[in-house]
């Protein structure tokens, strides 16, 4: 395995904003997003990363931006370092595969979660009170059951810590009723299109999270899209309701951490080599199934 890229530094160009995985650089009328190999769980970044994870995330997002471009506009300009600003030419090897140049957008202060299956925090809420996102569900669901209808459950966007679930009505108050309807419609259409495509390739997208912004007043899909970090990906041939299915996402890391005597506050424990290797394999397999290609050096297939 290659050495994971956990710190992204471009000499002479300061980081504008650093997230749990991505580092963002400001180039005036556009941003450069660089996906590191950092991995987080329970809102904590692990001290060691997953080799090639950033390349997988970046490449999968680029794949979906292109495939779903007829559903809603997106912010991607290019993933080709040869088309980046001139001052980045010397850093092509670092940026190839794990970066994208994007248009700037006025971010909407909500996250758009679409659920097709009852799992995770939704399953816990259902067990407690028979609802998901505050909406009543029928009795009789099992863990990981497919929902009778796909459900939209928004949340606020937190700079740090946990996002807070809100109702659709609260979202309407935050961004306005017309924009809220547009966001919900786009989110549901994106999920349904992607879920149908992925299922044909042996992946169930159990749920996912979208983010939107406005560019010249027009709704635009931003950030990452339908990746193993923003979604739950399950192998369709191993899916069985009534239990937590195996996954292609970082649930594998969460499951390992749940077995430790760790209180889920920093500092996070270092991941063993075996967990790193198996997690990397899951990310690569997700990319292979979705795109039908092998991830090559520099992220090109």
Account of the 3D structure:
Strand 4 (40-41) and strand 5 form a beta hairpin. The longest helix is centred in the middle third of the chain and has 24 residues, at 177-200. Strands 6, 9, 10, 13, 14, 15 and 16 form a seven-stranded mixed sheet that branches. The chain has a five-stranded antiparallel sheet with strand order 1-2-3-8-7. A two-stranded antiparallel sheet has the order 4-5. The protein has seven helices and 16 strands. It is an alpha+beta fold and 301 residues long. Helix 1 (53-67) packs parallel to helix 7 (273-291) and helix 4 packs across helix 5 (177-200). 29% of the residues lie in helices and 25% in strands. The protein folds into two domains: 1-104, Phosphorylase Kinase, domain 1 (2-Layer Sandwich), CATH 3.30.200; 107-248, D-amino Acid Aminotransferase, Chain A, domain 1, CATH 3.30.470.20. Its EC number is 6.3.2.6. Keywords: ATP-binding, Ligase, Nucleotide-binding, Purine biosynthesis. This is Phosphoribosylaminoimidazole-succinocarboxamide synthase. Residues 17-265 form the SAICAR synthetase/ADE2 N-terminal domain.
Task: Output the keywords.
7 helices; D-amino Acid Aminotransferase, Chain A, domain 1; Phosphorylase Kinase, domain 1; alpha+beta; 2 domains; 301 residues; globular; single chain
């Amino acid at each position: 395995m290659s050495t994971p890229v956990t710190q992204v530094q471009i000499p002479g160009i300061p980081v504008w904003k650093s997230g749990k995985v991505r580092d963002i650089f400001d180039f005036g009328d556009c941003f450069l997003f660089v996906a590191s190999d950092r991995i987080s769980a329970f809102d904590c970044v692990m001290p060691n990363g997953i080799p090639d994870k950033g390349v997988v995330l970046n490449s999968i997002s680029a794949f979906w931006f292109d495939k779903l471009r007829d559903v809603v506009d997106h912010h991607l300009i290019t993933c080709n370092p040869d088309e980046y600003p001139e001052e980045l030419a010397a850093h092509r090897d670092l940026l190839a595969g794990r970066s994208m140049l994007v248009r700037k957008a006025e971010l909407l202060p909500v996250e758009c979660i679409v659920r097709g299956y009852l799992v995770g925090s939704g399953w816990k809420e259902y067990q407690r009170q028979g609802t998901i996102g505050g909406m009543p569900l029928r009795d009789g669901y099992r863990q990981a059951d497919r929902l009778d209808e796909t459900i939209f459950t928004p949340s606020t966007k937190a700079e740090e810590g946990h996002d807070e679930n809100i109702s659709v009505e609260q979202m309407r108050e935050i961004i306005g009723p017309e924009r809220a309807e547009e966001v919900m419609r786009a989110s549901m259409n994106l999920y349904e299109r992607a879920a149908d495509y992925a299922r044909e390739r042996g992946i169930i997208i159990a749920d996912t999270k979208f983010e939107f912004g406005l560019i010249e007043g027009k709704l635009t899909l931003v950030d990452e899209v339908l990746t193993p970090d923003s979604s739950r990906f399950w192998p369709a041939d191993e899916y069985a309701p009534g239990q937590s299915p195996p996954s292609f996402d970082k649930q594998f890391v969460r499951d390992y951490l749940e077995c430790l005597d760790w209180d889920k506050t920093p500092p996070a424990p270092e991941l063993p080599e075996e967990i790193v290797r198996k997690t990397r394999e899951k990310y690569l397999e997700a990319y292979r199934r979705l795109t039908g290609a092998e991830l090559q050096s520099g992220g090109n297939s």
